[in-house]
DNA sequence: CATGGCCCTTCCAGTTTGTGGAAGGTCAAG
DNA sequence: CTTGACCTTCCACAAACTGGAAGGGCCATG
């Protein structure tokens, strides 16, 4: 499989696949002309990566997840711990974002939004 | 006022203030020795920036907000439109993050988290 | 066989919003 | 005069790609 084929099948753009190769997340073989050759196993890793990234895991965490995945002697507790740490980070982001949203929505509600210059949003920022 | 003083008063680190100077968000005067000299007005702009950034506005949006703030003929509708666009972005992020959270929490719940290798989290990623 | 068009490669730069550090000038106190 | 705390600029790095340029490969058609 060449890179555009595996891109279609994994749902990742070729640029991203090259990037993952650069940082060692995959090690596809090379053809005599220098083209990358992807095995089913490479494709599998890439699809795994796409899903882990979609869940918001960092690339470093994806590296760890892949390592755990390929370790038959892993403890599921280790995977769960990784996921819990990530969940805590998501919860923190949700809280911060929610606070922003509340403040911003209040300010928007209090602004007339007409042609006059008076604006509670700017007044609050300049407070 | 020198940079560390205005840093304390605005709540921004000197490095960040220099950065805002570099990108033209502020234009402090310079002393004969090359040191930046900050006026009350510079301080005010920096505090404004800190609060706008804390609400999640991008640096570009902060630039526009500052321009609106200093424009006596602005329409509050323009400020409100900027804020609404930003709010929509926050809502989108909240939704994406909420979806991630749900999926991740479900996976975590389904994982025994013991010393055995079997793990629904990895199974889902490898699906 | 040459040409076109699409694929592949590497390398460099840019994105965003700063942060860390090095090298060197300045200033006030002792 | 020295010491320590400032200040300056400049370069590099962070995350996770994305865009583009320059150059080579491969296949099919004329």
UniProtKB/TrEMBL annotation, chains A, B:
InterPro entries: CueR, DNA-bd_dom_put_sf, MerR-type_HTH_dom, MerR_fam, Tscrpt_reg_MerR_DNA-bd. The keyword DNA-binding applies. It is found in: Cytoplasm. Keywords: Cytoplasm, DNA-binding, Transcription, Transcription regulation. It holds the Pfam family MerR-DNA-bind. Residues 1-68 form the HTH merR-type domain. One of its GO terms (cellular component) is cytoplasm. It comes from the Bacteria. GO terms for biological process: positive regulation of DNA-templated transcription. GO terms for molecular function: copper ion binding; DNA binding; DNA-binding transcription factor activity. SMART domains: HTH_MERR. NCBIfam families: CueR. This is Cu(I)-responsive transcriptional regulator. It comes from Roseinatronobacter bogoriensis subsp. barguzinensis. The gene is cueR.
